[in-house]
Amino acid sequence: MTADMMTFLPADAAGDALPLHLVEADGLEAFVEGQPDSVAAWVRANGFAGGLGQVLMVPGEGGAPAMALVGYGDAAARARGRFWLGGAAPKLPAGAYRLATDLPHETLEAEATGWLFSAYTFERYRAQPAHGARLVAPEGVDAARIEAIAAGEALARDLINTPASDMGPAELEAAARALAEAHGATIAVTTGAELLEQNFPMIHTVGRAATEARAPRLIDIRWGDDGPALTLVGKGVCFDTGGLNLKGGASMGLMKKDMGGAANVLGLAKILMARGMPLRLRVLIPAVENAVAGDAFRPQDILTARNGLTVEINNTDAEGRLVLADALAFGAEENPDLMISFATLTGAARVAVGPDIAPFFTDDVNVASALGSAGAVVADPVWRMPFHEPYETMIEPGIADLDNAPKGGFAGAITAALFLRRFAGPRARYTHFDIYGWVPAAQPARPKGGAGQGIRALHAALPGILGL
């Protein structure tokens, strides 16, 4: 992927760009009637019916393309997905296009975002085909904002797609440093034995079995001097073997993406900093590898977290909540106005809502409403899940304050979220996203692989939530 492909052409390029028409199936006849007879004949002869995703190049005098048509189906068909304009972009010949169809503002913004997303390719290990269709910035959209969103999404995808051989804790730190330096942020990193000295015992414990080169660490980025305080916490388990409760091969196969929470908060931070959001941003990433070695932590060990709570380990494969706990407790010590965690935390969340929806937990109805509304507008589907109080007893083993893996298998996403809430300070100030961070099968503008989830919804909702 080249960065320029994920930007719009400037408005002054419109004069040389081909008009691109979105044509709904039930609006095809009206469109054709408004065109010259030669265009109408060409459309009919080629069987273009306005079906969702259909693409047709229409020639002008001398046979050169005069316009492009993209089928836009009907509302019912479009509701079964998103980014339909972006999905059509790879089918178009290389060149410059300008959108020649009026769309409602929110739809236009979402479709323009999808167009930029469609230009993403992951080329670190092998050259990948990329389409050469470029779009002139549509009139009425904030092109710079959408380009910043696309850049943040690309960062999240790149980090998740990179295998653990090249994206361990040290490499994740390097990516965080590069981001901080690019935007004038400060960064501090606590590594290895320093974690014990600085009272991050659970981050150290989970990561201590890894090699010295892949030592555990806590990454702490700060940016901005004024405005409300926002703390983002991202799970950075760069590879998860399951520890001594070793995963099977099928379950371990995608564990390079277990740092998807960290990738998403870095992608969101990139957007917020690039857009100059008036806030005090902090990003905390506990970066570890959950490895197997003689000093790996064990089932039935009891750990003491940063905030003094004790945790009985009943499954070493429920490690993400342990490293997040120390990071959340650290973040809560400054009483931020809002603290949000992102983590690829539980299979239970995937069973509940599938891979396409980002479930979130919050005690604040205003945050919930803002996120739900924003997610619908920006085509970033989210869904509120409950911090169900009666399940608190399920995470209390008796021998310690908390159990990291309650038996029985019920409500796994909820009990994990309740566990995290014990470390996050005032309840109304904490929201948790349990994301998948992966597209299992290619979708329009969303290739198979790493993905941002929930970060565009949160970006859109933050001004209302924080009063910006």
TrEMBL record:
Source organism of this protein record: Pseudooceanicola marinus
Domain Cytosol aminopeptidase: 315-322
Cellular-component GO terms for this entry: cytoplasm
CDD domains given in the database record: Peptidase_M17
PROSITE patterns associated with the record: CYTOSOL_AP (PS00631)
Top enzyme category: hydrolase
Pfam families xrefs: Peptidase_M17, Peptidase_M17_N_1
Key words of the record: Aminopeptidase, Hydrolase, Manganese, Protease
Keyword Manganese: yes
The family this protein is said to belong to: Belongs to the peptidase M17 family.
One GO BP: proteolysis
InterPro entries membership: Leucine_aapep/pepB, Macro_dom-like, Peptidase_M17_C, Peptidase_M17_N_1
One GO MF term: manganese ion binding
Protein name: Peptidase B
EC number: 3.4.11.23
Gene3D superfamilies membership: Leucine Aminopeptidase, subunit E, domain 1, Zn peptidases
Keyword GTP-binding: no
